[in-house]
Amino acid sequence: xxxxxxxxxxxxxxxxxxxxxxxxxxxxxxxxxxxxxxxxxxxxxxxxxxxxxxxxxxxxxxxxxxxxxxxxxxxxxxxxxxxxxxxxxxxxxxxxxxxxxxxxxxxxxxxxxxxxxxxxxxxxxxxxxxxxxxxxxxxxxxxxx
Amino acid sequence: xxxxxxxxxxxxxxxxxxxxxxxxxxxxxxxxxxxxxxxxxxxxxxxxxxxxxxxxxxxxxxxxxxxxxxxxxxxxxxxxxxxxxxxxxxxxxxxxxxxxxxxxxxxxxxxxxxxxxxxxxxxxxxxxxxxxxxxxxxxxxxxxxxxxxxxxxxxxxxxxxxxxxxxxxxxxxxxxxxxxxxxxxxxxxxxxxxxxxxxxxxxxxxxxxxxxxxxxxxxxxxxxxxxxxxxxxxxxxxxxxxxxxxxxxxxxxxxxxxxxxxxxxxxxxxxxxxxxxxxxxxxxxxxxxxxxxxxxxxxxxxxxxxxxxxxxxxxxxxxxxxxxxxxxxxxxxxxxxxxxxxxxxxxxxxxxxxxxxxxxx
Lengths: 145, 361
Description:
The complex is a heterodimer. Chain A is 30% helix and 15% strand. Chain A is an alpha+beta fold. Chain B contains twelve helices and eight strands. In chain B, β6 and β7 (303-311) form a beta hairpin. The relative contact order of chain B is 0.19. In chain B, the strands form three sheets. Chain B has a three-stranded antiparallel beta sheet. At the A-B interface, α1 of A face α4, α5 and α6 of B.
């Protein structure tokens, strides 16, 4: 049995640096891998809809007719599924957490019209789209009532 | 016989991190009977299995409990892999064990802090939680999340840790082990703590077996039982594994067992990091779970968890069920409370390390 068993540790703590970060005097530095929020480079996006279907909470919506990609920040659980599945790596996981949402939490991005070589891009897009549409049909069959 | 009174205890009480209600039937200062009441945080997560893809459901299992988060995704993935006959790459198994043991360290440090707080040792409480922060930093550095890791998935893991980073983790853990030793010494040797713990909340080995108590609670009563010793998954690669037990069966024994487990987990992590093979980290599952039933068991920080899954050939599972350690240990807790003083009640509840979120899902 002993008394004052933490005396040594307490003495050490007295002369060592504080364990906490001096926020906000020193800015908060997240780790490189921190999953803060999903961001999109909409110009690179091919609107394939893989992120839309892989999202476990249905936070991402892709509407091909409107060429729009939208995310509900309040539904997103930052699981990284969409980022790891994106075929053109247009989605990235940013380290900063989303600011507090006031009112609308859905942010929508609309793909701008292509300016150069529209034919080549359209071909590549249509091939992938055809493949993905076939996949969608298979998955739709498995859907329960 | 003196007059009996009923004192309601919980669901909101400083000692309880999660809500459980107890009706304490008192005779003067002595508890005659404790009647537990659960159901304050039932969320119906098991039912969600019918509406979520089996690959997506792993994110739901993670959210069953904040402290056992990785353990639940590990257990669920292991059960589905067994059901579908998926061979998980060895590197993934090693990484799973590393994260799982890290979560055991953080859970035990959290509990040690709460226990220290419950018997009024504030200094020890802050020291334990400060150490825990290092483990959470490792989680964030390797997976991107502090509590919800989203690292484990059916077929393997989502993130790889490169070998130089693993060596860094090994060093951090060795330092953590060195720094944890004075705290453990305080917990098991300090006079004021011993006065409070030794002899209180006794549960015999016979009762522990009879009531099917699991985890450190059972091991403190001398039941040598730990799922890790069966060598499932990465645990089969360990050179040696012996469950930490004690024969005293009182509150002091439960503290001591958890302290020893913390040091043991540090050793397991270092051993795994030394031996980790190179290779792929994920084997993508093909097809849907078959029309069959599967069972898996995992040793969580609080004890054995049993997972039951039933597939129906589609990508949605038919049934999912978990038996959590606290649902077993509540029976033992009620046994401990019978005959104890009112002042001992908070400590007796805390030393079984109840996790009500897991229990109610």
